[in-house]
Model the fold of this input.
Amino acid sequence: MDASTVVGLSIQEARTLLDSRQVSAVELARASLERIARVEDRVRAFVSVTEDLALEQAHEADRRISEGRAAPLTGIPVQLKDNMATRGVKTTCSSRMLEDFVPTYDATVTRRLYDQDAVLLGKGNMDEFAMGSSTENSAFFPTRNPWDLDRVPGGSSGGPAAAVAASEAVFSLGSDTGGSIRQPAALCGVVGLKPTYGLVSRYGLVAFASSLDQIGPITRDVTDCAIVLNAIAGNDSRDSTSLNVDAKDYTDALASGEGSLKGLRIGVPTEYFVEGMEPEVEESTRRSIKLLESLGAEVAETSLPHTSFALSVYYILAPSECSANLARYDGVKYGFSDGEAESMWEALERTRGGGFGPEVKRRIMLGTYALSSGYYDAFYLKAQKVRTIIRREFERAFEEFDAIVSATSPTVAFALGEKTADPVRMYLSDVLTLPANIAGLPGMSVPAGTSEDGLPIGFQILAGPLKEETIFRIARAFEQASGWDGRGQGLPTVGHGTLVSPSP
Done:
């Protein structure tokens, strides 16, 4: 089968071809690697490409298929964000600090994908240590949005979102600390899910902010998202924050979203139409809400007044946890080390000064200040108290509503370099997504149309803890009714035709 015919497939489409032997896992892997070779010099979604490993895993997947033991992800090409441990494969966090770090173990999510014989294509570019909203903070190079190569893909999981949008990988895994799966998914016109905190193990995820970080899927459509969540969710004894909940088949919820949302109550927070939201984004969001009404959902305005403080809370808590987590990078145990110094303290200063980029240093300093003597009560402790208020506010809202909806990002993808000189403007990119991390809630971004410039717009669906099935039901119904099936009504040609499309 010609390689061009198997690029841009969903997991379900690839599964059908693999199981019917119309294509082999090796052929599918080679097609993905060929696609990467053709477009990667312009998209830059990968920190590293693991060609030899991918072909080795693909051969094993073909053997499993021939024995009739195929799992849902057997033979399916995947990219992992480069902050998830992969034994024998460099895990850099897009940082000079870990530029040569090769883990001796796999993250739990890596191992669970390998258990199904998924095929690892490589590691995805990201903002350094997951700190950023545009993937311009990578120490190596920025990733570009496949829909317009002069614009950002979002962040910090910009590489994973761009890889799926550009058909370099069938699916990817990202991490979401304040919107880092959902925001790039919205800007790249794909589906991104942040599961309930603790539903997916964080073992082997390089920590940024431990009480906020959560791994989740980035996929072409909602069904693929459910398939991937089935594979990676579940209790893990190696993660103390992992929830002890029974495994579920999230694809079961998709059937209930076939055509009708009758009986569901959906809230629209007035505060989520924020100042600075682009008119096209607001128009798309209101149109999406009306579509949910037409599917039978009961829609009503609601108020979440304290979520307006979520941004302030986040930028106290996240830097504080970042300061503590990144203290381990001292140039002694692993990672970058600048030993050309006359004393231990000078070596430590030079190592951290040369190993970390500007945004990471900025957040370490903010967090260290917030945790310092005399300021802990005024900043960190107060932020934790407001976090509790925000969480309780969501709890009350979910007593009345099954889900809450909003735009995912207040803007479409912005130009490369547009916000790098103004950190506060950059931080506002996540104003609609980070409340879910503060409260530990699940949230999904689904494609909801494009702007006049042809740039994707995302629609966010939030639900109560462990209510992923509700999200899948709504998202699947919305996807079917809107016609935006994760392909943006046709895959991007990658930069308005500057790169070849999946099927030239």
Notes: The two ends are 15 Å apart (CA to CA). The mean pLDDT is 93.
